[in-house]
Input
Amino acid sequence: MKVAVAGAGAFGTALAISISATGPVTLWLRDAGEAEKLDTTRENARRLPGARLPDSITVSSDARALAEADVLLLAVPMQKLRGFLQDHRAQLAGRTLVACCKGIELETGQGPQDVIADVLPGSPLALLTGPGFARDIAIGLPTAMTLACADAPLGEVLQERLSSVTLRLYRSTDVTGAALGGALKNVVAIACGAAIGAGLGESARAALMTRGNAEMTRLAARRGADPATLSGLSGFGDLVLTCTSEQSRNYRLGLSLGQGDGFDPAVTVEGAATARAMDSAARAAGDDMPITAVVAALVENRLDVPQAMRHLLSRSLKEE
Ligand SMILES: NC(=O)c1ccc[n+]([C@@H]2O[C@H](COP(=O)([O-])OP(=O)(O)OC[C@H]3O[C@@H](n4cnc5c(N)ncnc54)[C@H](O)[C@@H]3O)[C@@H](O)[C@H]2O)c1
Ligand SMILES: O=P(O)(O)OC[C@H](O)CO
Output
């Protein structure tokens, strides 16, 4: 089975390194100059400095490399996924597509699995999600993530090929639940970072994580997911990691909001657009998503952190 990773950011590079331990893999990036540099130096100095690319990784910017793969891992940011699929529709047709991005498309409110189905209907697809920082995966620290695929036999094949001795993949057929867990944990991480950054304390963070988890589970169940998925790696697991580590870009954006500092707009922070997309969708559907609503307001500068927290605390008292 020929495997390629599309997108040589932090995660795509880390996945290629991990998968190359058990077989050859192609790492595809769109920029020919960057590809040549990566191939020569064998290091992604910009996105993943210090991690060496093993010889079993072929670096390419040739679109034919996409067409030659049986399985393609899509490691581009969520808001870029549709454009990537549209640009390479011909090469991607018939491939098994594994979305590795976490988020909701701002324009449509769709998750990665829906965007793939929209652009390339009928493509076999899966989702790779769950708690795992690119650097940890690249340097071979023990990591467990979720491979979600509605087609159970295909899920088993992908689980087997993409796992390694240090990256342990668990299988699920609940693609909706896995996608929503991965998308929404980033929103809660922004809220947690904001609380810590503003000096509101660890108790506030614990409250946000727990009520965030309730919000994620409620929404996912309403969309047909199994609530148990949200208690697994792709939900609770990733929520814990992202809400407690300064390695997380979503958490760091929250910290800077709480501290009143600026944040580099070039950094990939999926939770910002996802909060806005989910807030609109929740309002339209009449879903109650208070944490998502305040994060959307924070990233749009409609509220500051003290106002956001006052808003959450002044809601009517309820049963847990
Ligand atoms: N970094 C992590 O630890 C990590 C872990 C798990 C999941 N993810 C998810 O992986 C996705 C990508 O994150 P990342 O950390 O690799 O981001 P990144 O910012 O490091 O890299 C994104 C890469 O995508 C490329 N790209 C953007 N648009 C493209 C296009 N149209 N065609 C081809 N390439 C394009 C960029 O050039 C860049 O190299 C996100 O959804 C993120 O949530 C990241
Ligand atoms: O850096 P973040 O916030 O995008 O988080 C990376 C991964 O999603 C953690 O599982």
In short: The two ends are 48 Å apart (CA to CA). The mean pLDDT is 97.
